[in-house]
From TrEMBL:
One Pfam family, short name: DUF456
Name of the protein this chain belongs to: DUF456 domain-containing protein
The entry's keywords: Membrane, Transmembrane, Transmembrane helix
Chain segments annotated as transmembrane: 50-68, 88-113, 133-156
Keyword Transmembrane among record annotations: yes
Lineage: superkingdom: Bacteria
């Protein structure tokens, strides 16, 4: 049973890394589930502090995945309408069955929000939409980095306690 939990946990960590790029998978939380499964084995002692800290990080990053693109919009001169458009575009981009919807959605949402609701000129609206896109890229990078760190922690703990597992 321990080997099965460890293997499923490893798969979760790998899927978590992929999920940091794929919009349909919440990458960091899936990686955290991999860490949890490893700690549920008899070989690795349960560490509630470690799991609590990594859980907090995972949940924080899920929230930031929606906040950072909106903050990028505001940073590049967008208004509240552009920030709301970014968030709506991100959600629609995840749901919509169009290729690269997660990339296009926040950009178009900010652009439409600025053009329609604020009557901004194209230059200002495009700049705000570009900020949204940069915010999305920053959010993706942070999620990828964190999922890789979780994978590294998984491998470290696995090898540290591997004699009790195999």
């Amino acid at each position: 049973m321990d080997i099965a939990l460890a293997l499923i946990g490893l798969v979760c960590c790998v899927i978590g890394i992929l999920g940091s790029f794929l919009p349909v998978l919440p990458g960091t939380p899936i990686s955290w589930v991999g860490l949890l499964l490893l700690h549920l084995t008899d070989a690795v002692p349960m560490n509630y502090t470690f799991l609590g800290i990594t859980f907090f990080i995972a949940i924080t990053l899920v929230v930031l995945d929606y906040v950072i693109p909106a903050a990028g919009t505001k940073r590049f001169g967008g208004s509240k309408a552009g920030a709301i458009g970014t968030t709506v575009g991100l959600i629609v981009g995840v749901i919509a069955p169009i290729p690269f919807g997660i990339l296009i959605g926040p950009f178009l949402g900010a652009l439409i929000g600025e053009l329609v609701f604020n009557k901004s000129d194209r230059k200002t609206a495009t700049k705000a939409a570009f900020g949204s896109f940069l915010g999305f890229l920053a959010s993706t990078f942070v999620s990828f980095f964190t999922a890789c760190v979780f994978f590294g922690l998984y491998v470290y703990k696995l090898f540290q306690h591997s004699e009790g597992l195999f």
